[in-house]
Amino acid sequence: MKAFYGDLRVGILGGGQLGRMLIQQAINYNVSIRVLDPDADAPCKNLCDDFTQGSLTDFETVYNFGKKQDLITIEIEKVNVDALEKLEQEGILIYPQPRVIRLIQDKGLQKEFFKQNDIPTAPFQLIENRATLKKSALKFPYIQKLRRDGYDGKGVHKVVSEADYSTAFDKPSIVEEWIDFEKEIAVIVARNDSGELKSFPVVEMEFNPEANLVEFLISPSTLPADIQLEAENLAAKIADQLKIVGLLAVEMFLTKDGKILINELAPRPHNSGHQSIEGNYVSQFEQHLRAIFDLPLGDTRCISNAVMINLLGEKGFEGLADYEGLNDILKMDGVYVHLYGKKFTKPFRKMGHVTIIDNDRQLAIEKARKVQETVKVKV
Amino acid sequence: MKAFYGDLRVGILGGGQLGRMLIQQAINYNVSIRVLDPDADAPCKNLCDDFTQGSLTDFETVYNFGKKQDLITIEIEKVNVDALEKLEQEGILIYPQPRVIRLIQDKGLQKEFFKQNDIPTAPFQLIENRATLKKSALKFPYIQKLRRDGYDGKGVHKVVSEADYSTAFDKPSIVEEWIDFEKEIAVIVARNDSGELKSFPVVEMEFNPEANLVEFLISPSTLPADIQLEAENLAAKIADQLKIVGLLAVEMFLTKDGKILINELAPRPHNSGHQSIEGNYVSQFEQHLRAIFDLPLGDTRCISNAVMINLLGEKGFEGLADYEGLNDILKMDGVYVHLYGKKFTKPFRKMGHVTIIDNDRQLAIEKARKVQETVKVKV
User: Fold this and answer.
1) How far apart are CA A299 and CA B336, in angstroms?
2) Measured between CB atoms, which of B27, B334, B343 is closest to A47?
3) For a designed S-S bond to A87, which of A66, B187, B271, B331 qualifies (C-beta 3.0 to 4.6 A apart)?
């Protein structure tokens, strides 16, 4: 491994904001990054050493891009895993490993993995299509999730009564019990090839109920220490069982009776770790690089209370993005703006995020609400 | 001013490590950066939207590059100011302003500016050449500094006795009294076009006696509060008198009898502010961007004790750079590596820096010494 030398050819599948923030960090390690993304205006385009426009799901495209790299990582799971497996057989390092991506791509396989490994998760059934959905024995309300290609709240359907059958997905899905949870929490864990493993402290998430996107994230959690420890241990257990190399984001529900249920996994940097750039001694992006280069993992402790909000495209606006109120929030101390280089906004598109740092947790939350009221992405 | 929109064309004169770290920060603000640098392998080359290889001191080259920008900034003073003045007259924003760059380019003009504005500085004389040096009335030992083009300790000659005349520079210079100082300190101050002005806390520097480069920087200073306040006020006074827009790094001597003397100025991000990336709420790079885009200036307070060391090319090694010991220092908590993307090392070349953060100042210093002993840039 020749990290630090600038002649290690590292490819990222996907050129969105996660790749962009990974590149910002990779600069410090002299890592030259090449990117494959279908969008000619991808956020990474002008920041990488070499940009290839092309499909992430097409075998030939991924294989041909991959052949030119020494190491490949991802910033999105929806990639052609067959091509990655072939590249892996040919000696190219692929982190996370193709078998891990394959498992996580399919929420059905994820759920079965949890079951086989005694990892607590909501009871579920696998179904083939809409017809089998109707025959499932679950009690209303329950949740249907597409096994593949769901993201950012898409591919999720709530079934409250028989009336919801007609709008259900007619594709392979999981159906799972509706969890009336107290909180959604997340732990990001990193594992390097030497087997070193480190969890970030638990964060708490608040979702935008309409878009089903993380809208508000608070770090660190103030849940009781035993619950936090359990969450961190669970995340570490999963990473260890998967033998993943890289980051693993583990989203969890905390039920009203204090149980933790694993919701889903992402084998990459994740929205629930953006606050780590300013809020923790090592950021999730640096940690991912350390993991895939088999470097010692960094110190995940929090520096300060941090609250992160996503800047989502305002409802009702579509077109060239205009950022209202940014000047105003820059007057506030401890406010960090991260824009993603996206030219066009549309409702709920992730256009950026803002992290608010304050030693006083309550003040950080209040500032975050102020930021949320002030900044609007319009046209 | 259309910061945040990605369609503001910002040009940097110079594509070295300062430009590189500026770009890392500019990514957060969607600012698209174009770079002019004579080196085809400049550290910024693959990170900017558009790279032009060309001379920074040639009128036509700078003018033609500049015509394509909306705003120009610098990461090195040795640029063609005539071209910048013409561009400024034609309506392009140039920050820092050409008149400020012209003044600071010439250590003689700098010294006269200090004198005219009652800014304490070491007594000096302006001389034309080696012959006038011999006639100067200063007592041995004294210092000869070239008026132009000195940097990183180059262009400085110590005159201890008549024997040193023969090796003195035969060019317009300043000669100034040898200051037997207690400490070298620095303050970076920022000023935006609205006139808002903010100083970073005082830092203390230790120089490599052989290379005359900053080797070891400690933030914040532990000097008495009144001395620190005086240093910050002096820096602010100079920035205000210059009406500079952007950063101004002010290097100072603290004499053994507790007086502050201004040594020299740099109108740009500076080596004495690198620790601000992790050590302060706002980094010097973000502050420079805020200043030139006339945004509210950020919070300059320290987050933690920080010690910065430059990674200089090891004496006796020249060629493709190899970084010894980096893996070892990454095992230590609070250690941040910044490599500059330079392929080739040579003795004392600035290849990167490392910042060490620790709430315990003494521990930070000890870790920094450990880092210094461990990391070697060889071939």
Assistant:
1) 11
2) B27
3) A66
- pLDDT for B5 equals 62
In this prediction, the residues of chain B whose per-residue pLDDT falls under 50 are 1
DSSP string, A84-143: HHHHHHTT-EESS-HHHHHHHH-HHHHHHHHHHTT--B--EEEESSHHHHHH--PPSSEE
Query: If pLDDT is split at 50, 70 and 90, which confidence band does A3 have?
Result: low
What is the C-alpha to C-alpha distance for residues A111 and B55, in angstroms, rounded to an integer? 60
pLDDT for A140-158, tens place per residue? 899 999 999 877 678 899 9
| Contact assessment for residue B32 and residue A46, using Cβ atoms and an 8 Å cutoff | yes
CA distances from A119 to A91, A197, A244, A252, B170 (A): 33, 18, 16, 11, 78
Bridge partner list, B205: B184, B217
**DSSP of A129-149:** SHHHHHH--PPSSEEEEESSS
C-alpha dihedral sign at A261, A267, A273, A278:
positive
Model confidence at A294, in pLDDT bands (50, 70, 90)? very high
> Which of A20, A326, A333 has the CB atom closest to B281's CB atom?
A333
Chain B residues 36-95 within an 8 A CB cutoff of chain A = 46-49
Contact A331/B47, CB-based, under 8 Å? no
Q: A56-88: per-residue pLDDT in tens?
A: 999 999 999 999 999 999 999 999 999 999 999
Which among A48, A296, A338 has CB closest to B330?
Answer: A296
Q: A-contacting residues of B 265-324, CB under 8 Å? A: 281, 290, 295-296, 298-299, 303-304, 321-323
Residue the block writes with tokens 């920094």 = B368
pLDDT at A4 over 80: no
Neighbours of B91 (CB within 10 A): 7
Tell how strand B173-177 and strand B50-53 pair up.
unpaired
Contact B29 A339 (CB under 8 A): yes
Q: Express each pLDDT in A181-231 by its tens digit.
A: 889 999 999 999 999 999 999 999 987 777 666 678 999 999 999 999 999
ipTM score: 0.94
Give the best residue of B2, B4, B32 to mutate against chain A (max A CB count within 10 A): B4
Which domains are seen in chain A, by residue range?
6-95 (3.40.50.20), 123-177 (3.30.1490.20), 181-378 (3.30.470.20)
Residues in chain A with CB shorter than 8 Å from the CB of B48 are 46
- Nearest residue in chain A measured CA to CA from B321: A5
Per-residue pLDDT at B32:
86
- Any CB–CB contact under 8 A between B210 and chain A? no
A226 in contact with B, Cβ within 8 Å: no
pLDDT of A322: 92
Q: In sequence order, what are the residues at sequence separation of 6 or more whose Cβ sits closer than 8 angstroms to the Cβ of residue A347?
A: A211, A312, A313, A314, A315, A316, A317, A318
Per-residue confidence at A7, pLDDT binned at 50, 70, 90?
A: confident
**Does B304 contact A299 at a Cβ distance shorter than 8 Å?**
no
pTM, entire model: 0.95
What pLDDT is recorded for position A217? 96
User: What does the pLDDT average to over A278-289?
Assistant: 98
Q: Does B337 touch chain A (CB under 8 A)?
A: yes
DSSP letter at B360 equals: S
With contact defined as beta carbons under 8 Å apart, do B291 and B191 qualify?
Answer: yes
The percent of chain A in helix, strand and coil, each rounded to the nearest 5, is 30, 30, 40
- The DSSP annotation for B152-172 comes to TTBTEEEE-SGGGSTTS--SS
